[in-house]
Amino acid sequence: MKQPESPTAPPLFRNDINGLRALAVSAVVLFHFGIGGLQGGFSGVDVFFVLSGFLMSSIIVEGLQQGRFSILSFYWARARRIWPALIVVCAGVLVAGWILLIPEDYEKLGRHARQSLFFLSNKTYLKESGYFDASVHSKWLLHTWSLSVEWQFYLLLPLLLTAVWKLKPNRRALLAAHGLLFAASFVTCLLMARTQSNEAFYLLQSRAWELLLGGLCYLMGSSTTLPEMARRALEAGGLLLIVGAAFLLDSSMIWPGYLTLLPTLGTVLVLQARRNDAYWSTNTVIRWLGERSYSIYLWHWPLVALLHHFGDQGRMAWTGAAVALSLALGELSYRFVEQPARRRLQRWKRRWAVVSLLALVVLVGTAANLVVRSEGVPQRMPRDILTMLEKAQMETSRKKECLGAAAACVYGGPDIRLLLIGDSHATAAVSGAVKALPSREQGVFILAGPACLTVTGLQNREHPATDKDDGCVKLQAQLPGTLAGLDAKLPLVIINRASVYPLGYNHADNSEEVHPLSYKTEPHKTATPESLQEFSDAYVESVCNLARTRPVYLMRPVPELLVTVPTILARRMLRGDHSDVTLTREAYRKRHAFIWQVQDRAHEQCGVGILDPLPYLCDERQCYGSRDGKALYTDDNHLNRDGSALLAPMFAKVVGPAEQAAQTTERHPGEEAPHARLRP
Fold first, then answer.
1. Going from the N-terminus, what domains does the chain have, and what CATH number goes with each?
2. Bridge partners, residue 448, by sequence
3. Where do the H-state alpha helices sit in 168-292?
4. pLDDT (tens digit, 9 = 90+) per residue, 30-53?
5. Using an 8 Å Cβ cutoff, are 353 and 345 in contact?
6. Which residues form the Acyltransferase domain (predicted)?
7. Closest by Cα among 359, 365, 300, 330 to 113
């Protein structure tokens, strides 16, 4: 007859741990699908971290105390637990990607699958920026970053604890080691979160404290000697912290950081209470979710990505179906992958089991690598999509030669009739300028550098003035002498991605911290009235100085589409959607109203001309990144040859017949700026 369980003996099955897994995976899944108002559901991952640390420390410490701990056996047990289901998911998304993804996206998926299988994906995603940015939904295996962090922790923890045990074989030494490492990691996390938020999110050194907190919880022992009411209070307090974090936090907060203590300490309280018979953790639904939490976690995110791929993320019917499918795939994975793999790999001889599992990892990893090396297997694609992608990337010829390193180039014939200066937007527009020239013998002179604002009196965050070898610094130093050596009658057109310098880069969802690029003495963290006035004064002064010696024109900024136009267009075409990629005129106005005002000020102060690309790229309601299945941009903000060619009539106002050249501006001083009216 089975003896009643002692309150101090470890139960065969910890219902509280299983219940916490169920809560954690529910929070994460509902958050990712946008259900239930769980804006802080991402904190479920932090609950998983504490649980993993608790369990791993318990396995290692008990093994050391009993004199039977093997580091290799520990690694093998973790591999049996994690790899089988992960292999199946990676293989599954590679098959789905073959059917659904364009080459660029499929190549990226192959890279992500490879990195996920070898537990390096956290570092890969770090290089690709933030967890909460808009592009996350094109990363089908983004959620594996947490598995990579855990695996890296699993590799190091047994080595460290074994070394401590050899020096001082007692539990107190292990507790002290956990405590020191916890403190170091927590301080690292807080420091990194302020200045390197993405690094703090993805890297082990800033996440280890959460797993070590679980280890500390184990080493400090549970509170089974406390009265039942006290244990109930501990448990209730812990659950309140976990659930409160899921509902009250959101992705705008610094994470991880101080607030991460809410779900992690909540998990510790529940573990300390150790109530193995509480209804919340023993009911059928919670037990089912907890047991399948790993497989559900693995499968849910690819389905989130799939919803976004088809644009159905806002439709409740499709969202509900995707959640149900996540649970169904979790059940199938648990029943037919996790459990059988665990049993068979444990039953087989170790050598054959290891070889078999590694063979599967290598097989799927090799397939993923082939996808990467073949650049996404473009042969899969319909010919019209490949043609569109090829034409979309047709940029200005000699771009590498003529952009940067203070290189001056002439496009067209030797008879120079127009001067262009600026940044990469000037290079992107030069094809249209050449097309506007009346004769093939005539040419366009260009001097441009990447992210290089050709304005004196301002410094550039990306091109420090102290770096004399920097291409932009050289260009600015070279510019006065170069212009002085050219005919003063030649008109000069200044073309920049102008708004980026006073305002910072334009992100689709404002997920990344934006810093203005230009400054006078000290870099600005954000745009302020003072920094904008500083920019305006320097810009107008610099432009008007140039206008003293020759005709000068300022080109309005081209629309920034916020998405990579060829990629979005190809995705739509693959789905049978032939709609154009567009941006509303209102969005353009919000982005560029300040620069229009600054350019208007220069026009009014010293008579510089204004060239407006909007009549050629926009209609009354929206601006076009593509037209009739043809991309006009190479990315989200640079025109390709087709897009630049549309601006030829605009440049013809400067270099065309004399009666056209007399039209020095497309907007007279009395007309309204874009903050009032956008139509030219």
1. 15-374 (no CATH), 398-560+584-621+641-661 (3.40.50.1110)
2. 403, 422
3. 171-195, 197-202, 204-220, 228-248, 261-273, 279-282, 284-291
4. 999 999 889 999 999 999 999 999
5. yes
6. 15-328
7. 365
